[in-house]
Amino acid sequence: MPSGIPKEKQRQRAPSKRSLETRARIMDAAEQVFAAHGFDGASLRDIASEAGVQVALVNHHGGTKEELFWRVVARRADELSAARLKALAARKARGPLTLRSLLECFFGPYLEKAEVGGTHWFAYARLVAIVSADPRWRALTAHCFDPTANRFVSEICALYPQAPRQTISAGFVYSVSAMLALLTSRWRIGALGQGSSEISEHLDELVIYCAAGIDAAARR
């Protein structure tokens, strides 16, 4: 497994517009294929077919299957992290934090992107679920997600100084799982509840649900 996000191959000149468009199409296709079939079930041939290119081009722009998976997961991580930290900074500027406000800062940016960013952000949620569930991607999650996650865990720990960090961390992981369930299985909410399955309408209940669990565990 790579020790970090694979570095791009050095080029003699800047890539052309066509090359950049091809790369983006391959990354989008890989995101969809990995999300649908997982890492093991996906193949570079499937990705090439989805992107409408030759397999050689997938290798050229993405590297090996593992390198391509790393790149696909990493490419949205920085954008999402920046949005969460920006929301956190803005909320801290308005006054003392609460558990609910912290969770809103963490969940809100992703739900907003999923609402307006199309199917790619929903596929990305499935990728995050895949890497979160499989220890072989420990280095990938440590690189892409842990810095921001640890920042939020630390902020929650400051609200509950008597609680062990492990307790807060567990509650945070359970909460992330709940967010991913909303993003990947929201149709079940509508089916069982016979109501709306729009993501924006579930942010408050997601925050209430997760905050109650973390608070109960922290005070135990």
UniProtKB/TrEMBL annotation:
GO MF, any single term: DNA-binding transcription factor activity
Transmembrane feature ranges: none
Gene3D superfamilies per UniProt: Tetracycline Repressor, domain 2
Coiled-coil residue spans: none
DNA-binding region: 43-62
InterPro entries in alphabetical order: Homeodomain-like_sf (IPR009057), HTH-type_TetR-like_transc_reg (IPR050109), HTH_TetR (IPR001647), PsrA_TetR_C (IPR041586), Tet_transcr_reg_TetR-rel_C_sf (IPR036271)
Keywords from the UniProt entry: DNA-binding
Region listing for Disordered, in residue ranges: 1-20
Stretches with biased composition (Basic and acidic residues): 1-11
Keyword Protease found: no
Domain HTH tetR-type: 20-80
Protein name, per record: Transcriptional regulator, TetR family
Native species: Shimia aestuarii
Organism lineage string: Bacteria, Pseudomonadati, Pseudomonadota, Alphaproteobacteria, Rhodobacterales
